[in-house]
Amino acid sequence: MHWLWVMLVGAAIGAFAGAIVSPERSFGWIGHILAGLVGACLGEVLIGPMGPEFAGMAVFPAVIGSLVVVLMMVTLMYWARAW
């Protein structure tokens, strides 16, 4: 049951980051979940756990990390399209 909450919170954080960075492009639910989970791990490693936690993820570092991950995804897609 814990993994279901982790996936839901990861999807919400990834969707939030996707809406901020690239509102005209969606990465789908799987892309948002991956961006949220990878961003949460990245944010907690770089920033550390701070702020409220949901499903074992610190919210502020997770959002910042997800923004970075989504920005990297958008940049990679832009470069791939340019080739």
Brief summary of the model shown:
By secondary structure, the protein is mainly alpha-helical. 76% of the residues lie in helices and 5% in strands.
Order of strands across the widest beta sheet? 1-2
Instruction: Report the major sheet.
Output: 2 strands, antiparallel
Task: State the order of secondary-structure elements, H for helix, E for strand.
Answer: HHEEH
Question: How many β-strand stretches?
Answer: 2
Query: β content, as a range?
Result: under 5%
Q: How far do the termini sit from each other?
A: 43 Å
Spatial extent as radius of gyration:
13 Å
Gross morphology? globular
Structural class: mainly alpha
Rounded mean pLDDT is 82
Structure characterization notes:
This protein has 83 residues and is mostly helical. The chain is 76% helix and 5% strand. It is built from three helices and two strands. It has helices at 2-21, 28-46, 59-82, and strands spanning 53-54, 57-58. The chain has a two-stranded antiparallel ribbon. The chain starts with a helix and ends with a helix. The mean pLDDT is 82.
